[in-house]
Amino acid sequence: MSAAQRRQIARGSRTTRFAICCALVTIVAAPTVAQTGRPDVTSSVSVRSAQKNCFNDKIELPGHLMPRKTIDVVPDREGFKVAQIMVEPLDSVLSGQALAQLVPLSGANLPAMTISAPVSGILLRSNVSIGQPVSPKQSPMFQISARGEIDFVAQAPLAIINFVKIDNSTIIRLLDGRSLNGRVRQIEPGADPANQDNQIKVTVETPRDIRVGTFARAVVTVEQRCGLGVPFSAIQYEADGTVVRVVNGDRVETRQVTVGLLNGAEAEIRSGLSETDLVVVRAGSFLREGDRVEPVLLR
Q1: What string of H, E and C letters represents the secondary structure of 247-273?
Q2: Is residue 186 a part of any domain in this protein?
Q3: Do 117 and 214 share a domain, yes or no?
Q4: How confident is the model at residue 142 (pLDDT cuts 50, 70, 90)?
Q5: Other beta carbons within 10 Å of 136
Q6: If you ran DSSP here, which 8-state letter would residue 286 be given?
Q7: pLDDT value at 43 more than 50
Q8: What is the spatial distance between Cα 257 and Cα 242, in angstroms, rounded to a whole number?
């Protein structure tokens, strides 16, 4: 080996020894995660104040739209047939309005007769045709929903009936997608012996093109409370109970809360928060007590 080669090897050994020494110094000087605990890292989180809102507790019931009171229209004498029909089903009629003209059957010595509406309302059914003989003993010529009043009628088990009260606000949803407003009018006191269901009747604001017997569903608001609400996404369920994360200054705090009713994406908070608290809207499960964060206020 030449003298030049020996000098090159010596220089490489000194460089290696220097790198090892620097690494040792770094290892000794740097504290471990175990020594410091959770790293104090700042991250941005979306926050929103707890806001006042109203929350509804609702139940849903299937049922049908039925006339509250029906009036059957029949002739008061025998010996007539229909000469003219002046109304059609779903027509609005007034008390005393002519519905049909009758003429005597062949051989009957009787004057012509006008069949009139005994009450105002909506004509539900017409069961006659021109030339048809009519009689008080036959099916009614016409059927009228008195005053046009329609009820939504449903059967409900006792477990649900206990929550429903007279005048509860109700939305009636029809199969065609329309919704009608209503209120609970009557709750039958006795249960059906066969199935132990009770009947509920809801007064409905009814358009005149609604046919009786139509299937529908009622959404009954059985309770309403107003108070503080937070996004449902802010609520975390942990071993110690239900919590939300709030930001106080730039630090995360954990609050035990009592959750009440829901209203869409909002949840009622019965206890544990105030209006001044800034609640972490999302990702609360990734945060811990004392974490340092940068709050971004959502409007």
Answers
A1: EECCEEEEEECEEEEEECCEEEEEECC
A2: yes
A3: no
A4: very high
A5: 10
A6: G
A7: yes
A8: 6
Task: Let me know whether 102 and 247 are in one domain.
Answer: no
Average pLDDT, the chain: 84
Look up residue 33 and give its amino acid: V
Residues 292 and 166 in one domain: no
- The count of structural domains within the chain is 3
- Average pLDDT on 203-209 reads 80
For position 77, which CATH number holds?
2.40.50.100
Q: Name the most confidently modeled range: 186-190, 236-240, 267-271.
A: 267-271
Same domain flag for 208 and 188 = yes
Residue 80: exposure state from Cβ atoms within 10 A (0-12, 13-18, ≥19): buried
Q: What is the CATH number of the domain that holds 236?
A: 2.40.420.20
C-beta neighbour count of 50 within 10 angstroms: 23
Residues 6+ apart with CB under 8 A from 7: none
Containing domain of residue 124, as a range?
72-146
Kindly report each contact of residues 35-39 with a partner whose C-beta sits within 8 Å and lies 24 or more positions away, as own/partner: 38/288, 38/290, 38/291
- Does residue 2 lie within any of the structural domains? no
pTM to 2 decimals? 0.61
Which two structure tokens, joined as six digits, stand for 288? 């811990």
Of 178, 199, 224, the last residue of a domain is 224
User: How far are the Cα atoms of 18, 108, 170, 249 from residue 47, in angstroms, in the given order?
Assistant: 51, 88, 35, 12
* Cα separation values, 149 from 182, 188, 199, 202, Å: 12, 19, 18, 11
